[in-house]
Amino acid sequence: MENKQAYLSAGDVAQMIKNGDTTSLEITELALSRARDSQNTLNAFITICEEQAIRDAQNSDKLVSKGKMHGPLHGVPFTVKDLINTKDVRTTMGSKIFEENFPRFDAVVVSRLKKAGAILIGKTTTPEFGHKPFTSSPLFGHTRNAWDQRRISGGSSGGAAVAAAAGLGYLHVGTDGGGSIRIPAAANGVVGMKATLGTVPNDSTPDTFGNYSYTGPITRTVSDAASMLSVMSGPHSSDIHSQGRENQDYCSATTHPQDLRNCRIGWRPFLGNTDIDSELLSLTSSSVNSLKQHGALIVEIDESFESPEPYWRAINQAAWKSRYGSYESEWASEMTPTFLKSIREAEDYSAIELQHAIYNRTTLFRQVQSWFKDFDFIITPTLSRTALEIEKDLYDPVLIEGREAGIVRQAWYPYTHPFNLTGHPAITLPSGFHSDGLPTAIQIIGPYGADYDVIRCARLFEISNPWENRIPYIPGLG
Q1: C-alpha span between 276 and 278 (Å, rounded)
Q2: How far is residue 434 from each of residues 313, 387, 413, 422, 430, measured CA to CA in Å?
Q3: 37, 176, 238, 248: which could form a disulfide with 194 (CB 3.0–4.6 Å)?
């Protein structure tokens, strides 16, 4: 029974608490127990804030007994990636430098989730400063894939995605600077969304004007992702891109998704890459065709596309060097070697090269937005192969069916970082299981600002490709 409760949707849990069928304390204790018991196997948490969570759950139940409830997520346990500030709960950014950092304020999204009644149970793992799609760091070691502990969790929101897949809480907050929500969500068979730039305000970035990093939901269902987005979105004074945005009820996109009649969908199996696992390609192509039953016309696109990864890398590495480079002289021996290599590479960029990368970002936006003159949505695979082996790291070559396909950022997830640069909404969804036992995934991209429609399309895909009852075996949890 406990195992079944752990995999309920957040919406069902909230309704059960409201109806008196369970209590927030019971649900929170279950989530905390599973988080603790899975640490030796999965290692999804940097911090489990047990005392605070129990206290908050007890207070939540007192309100229910008085007929008073905070909001739509009242009493539901959630986690937060350890790049995001949480008041009085340490925020390490996966780095020994900030091992004892206790913020005085919650980030905007955390504050909004708490206001909606959700209960924070812990901080999930991230590589140092979120710099790679492998969730490992000198501070905590490796976070392992929920489906196969010999494989990576993906990153940099690896802990959040593993927690979602393993039933360690119900709602999970991640960040995405180049695919860091979508990559681990795809690798672990869950839902992850990067909304349009500014839909969810980001008060953590030091550069709001040039921002390319997003905060978003990782969940087991599209409906739960919509519930989180409804709470987290809306304008905030800290984020220039959020100004003028209106709050929207994204939940109605999942309860009344309508159909896809007269909808043209462009299927792009390649996006600047030349290699993809043949079985994964077959699985994702077949799953996309399931949208035809909802009335969609699927058109395969084979036009060339130049990978923006080189200038994505220039912008990111320059930002990391500017923000964290001053710690190198004192902390280099305690820092992740791949992060040090990344920021040292930034020393070779000139100001002119960086400005050209910024110009290229605008060119890319105009190119991608032009796709939607002919199509309502673009769909791609999310990854070119299933999760990499646990011993791999950022600068190792990616093998696809025994072939060296190139460096990780260009060969494993060429499909994600273009839309960090352009700002378009993108959601990843499980599309099946490979013969190696690991999940595959597709990514739905919509026009700028079309978050509601992307969620609607995602819900229809979920209806045609149900995965909610697929649960990984976790040693120690069952």
Answers
A1: 6
A2: 30, 11, 17, 31, 11
A3: 176
Statement: the pTM of the whole predicted model exceeds 0.85: yes
Q: Give the percent of the chain with pLDDT over 90.
A: 97
pLDDT score of 380 more than 80: yes
Q: How far apart are CA 25 and CA 96, in angstroms?
A: 33
Asked about 180 being catalytic, the answer comes back as yes
Q: Of 156, 223, 230, 342, which one is the catalytic site residue?
A: 156
Task: Report how far apart, in Å, the C-alpha atoms of 26 and of each of 29, 59, 60, 416, 422 are.
Answer: 5, 13, 12, 38, 43
Q: 156: cis peptide before it, omega within 30°?
A: yes
- 156 in catalytic set: yes
- Quote the DSSP letter at residue 171: E
Give the whole-angstrom CA distance, residue 83 versus residue 122: 12
Under 8 Å between Cβ of 296 and 265: yes
Q: How far apart are CA 246 and CA 323, in angstroms?
A: 32
Q: Which residues contact 154 (CB under 8 A, 6 or more apart)?
A: 133, 134, 135, 145, 161, 183, 184, 185, 186, 187, 188, 387
Buried b vs exposed e over 252-268: b needs ≥16 C-beta within 10 Å? ebbeebeebeebebbbb
Distance, in Å, from the CA atom of 322 to the CA atom of 474, rounded to the nearest integer, reads 40
Helical ranges in 128-221 per DSSP H:
158-166, 182-188
Catalytic one of 24, 38, 157, 180: 180
Q: 46 φ, ψ to 5°?
A: -90, -40
Among residues 81, 114, 123, 132, the one annotated as catalytic is 81
Cite the beta strand spans of 76-170 per DSSP E.
77-81, 119-124, 136-137, 141-142
The structure tokens listed for 138 are 């000198």
Q: Using 50, 70 and 90 to split pLDDT, how confident is the model at 478?
A: low
Question: CB burial class (10 A; 0-12, 13-18, 19+) of residue 141?
Answer: exposed
Nearest to 154 by CA among 170, 176, 139: 176
DSSP H or E run through 76: none
DSSP summary character for residue 216:
E
